[in-house]
Amino acid sequence: MVYTMALKNTKKAEIKITGMTCATCAQTIEKALLNLEGVHRADVNLASEIALIDYESDKLKIKDIDNVVKSVGYDVVNERAVIKVGGITCVTCANTIKNDLEKLDGVVEINVNVSSEKVYVTFNPKVISTTDLKKSIEGSGYRYLGIEGEVLEDLKREETQLKRKYRIIVGAITSAILMGLMYAPMSMMHYMSFLSFLIATPAFVYLSHPIFSAAYRTLKNKSLNMDVKYSIGIGTAFFSSVFGTFGILGHDFMFYETAVMLATFLTLGRFLEERAKGKTSESIKRLMGLQAKSATVIREGTELKVPIEDVIVGDTVIVKPGEKIPVDGEVISGQSFVDESMISGEPIPVFKEKKSKVIGATINNNSVLNFKATKVGKDTVLSQIIRLVEEAQGSKPKIQELADKVVVYFIPFVLAVATISFLSWYFVFNSTFLFAITTLISVLVIACPCALGLATPTAVTVGLGKGADYGILIKNAEALQVSEKITSVLFDKTGTLTKGKPDVTDVVSFGLDEDQLLKIAASVEKNSEHPLANAVVRKAEEKGITTSESKNFDTFGGKGVKAIVSGKEIIIGNRTLFKEKQILIKNEVEESIVKIENEGKTAVLISVDDKVSGIIGIADTLKETSKESIKKLMDSGIKVYMITGDNKRTASAIAKTLSIENVLAEVLPGDKSREVKRLQESGEVVAFVGDGINDAPALAQADVGIAIGSGTDVAIESGGIVLVKNNIMDVVSAIKLSKKVMQRIKQNLFWAFAYNTALIPVAAGILYPSFGITLRPEFAGFAMAMSSVTIVTLSLMLKRFNPEKD
Hints:
- By secondary structure, the chain is α+β, with helices and mostly antiparallel strands.
- Helix 14 packs parallel to helix 27 (777-796).
């Protein structure tokens, strides 16, 4: 425990630390924390892995403390909440929320998704609560709709949309009436202006109240957003009309219908945008909808129906035919077929019996199953998939950085353009005040940073959600962007291109009976988990051979194993191991090895007391889709490599079957990442496809790691892309989807930039001197409303993505 002199404004904090292994670790962290200006006490408990800290809150934030702990090589455990927020319409709104949340001590990281209106907050729950987060969001002028999954979210969204619908109806009817009054006789104009004022004012106040309220809250927080710009535009239109009505300005300034129509179009735009944005997250909602609402459990010998939230690990759960399996678990009794298509995408039901794993949200088909709950709540496979997809949807590709930079300066720029336009037309070009004020209003309402802000997140949200529908889980936007640029795909052979379940095909013995050779080999290999070892043991079991006891088992990474059986040293492995051990390989043995390897099989050598006693040939069957997938990749211009620990002859025979020209053979497991790096150094953008566990270093080294056939383990750390199914064709689909999403993002950004670049000058009157063309404010408002809707609609077209057709 370490202290320094405490001062006023001292605050206490508790942080959870991981990675400590000894007392020195705790001392290192304490020393680093005390070197931080403002920290007065640092007490790190190695056993509980908790640090208690006293610090000056006006000098430091929890984020600074976390960063110091990470800088000395340890990590900090925080909580993460996905908060639904109502009223986010552009990147400026997102920045306002982010800036206000960052002021809260205890908040570590914030990411705001404009498209889905979600705020992803990483925070220290010992310092700050979700109640504090709620107060901050509401204080910024936005609606807190609850933590992801709460019913409150949908109810409030429906309520907001209903209010907008009423406002649009009122605005449309009022606009029609006001436009009708425009055709009244000139003699009645004075009376019509007062009548228009009486009709327009209630409707305008009702329509514009949300816009003006949001603008006020934004200005109060010393920020600028779309509502400020809109308020100036529609406010100018309305109050100019009021001044015209009461004689301050002339009757030429009577455009109540313009003010009401503008407010109506702005509300319509937000209504349509909100409805479209709701559709972008349908995939997540579909996944959430798969969750069972209740479960039948046995407690104290009694069957009880309990809410899904009350199921705990260790509960015995009963699932009847036709019911959803509520949580993940392991079958303890019963046999049945289970439909897992909603998770794995495989249409054929899977047979389950004792010790089989079952996944929550899948459907039990034809018989009763009793199983023990092993994962509940946020730990289930479905919850992991939802969390992974949500986090990916909340990330930003680098291409969005340009749009974000533009949006920061956009509203000040538009306000400047509108002001310059007004001043230029009125004072420089001597136009009428009416014309000048019209250009100002048109510029204010037509400029739309929302389109820029929505271009990327809507495409990412729809695209990644669509990927989840096909069992393609892209973990972050960076993986999405890099996947578009892939030039080479490097496949691990075993379990990736092949089924990963090798079988013994040949047993060649020298001086021993074949069954005796199998018995010796299986007695050693039963100690190993390697697929080739399992094949040998399985073959011995099939033949009814009983294994002997083995001692002093040892492994030689990627080369083989050894053990003592019946007092004799048995070595099993490849040529490399036998050369290292200086075990002589005679010509007749070499001929048998070559014959097996030329058939694309793996030759496993067996020696008894340093003498070759036999060879076991093992073959792994290629997956049905491997050849077609590789052809499609090569047809698209991508180089395909196969990497394997097999010798060159065996590897070449398999590669020839798959039409792969680039083969990296005799590569030890630890050297795979080195081969990836070598390709990267030659200028290739490399995707590595492996099983996500044994290939973790190579997956991490690659520009994009693709973990295939992860099944229930979707939360694996390695791999930017996780493929739930064990289907090579999904590699092709993942790359296709990435290219499709990035193509749509670029199209969205182009149209967003083009819209603003083309129409802001037109609204400012640039075409008027040459062509007499101007843009009426109401048309400018309609164009603005449609711009964001257009961008979201373009993103929604990604829902049509079909990997088999695209």
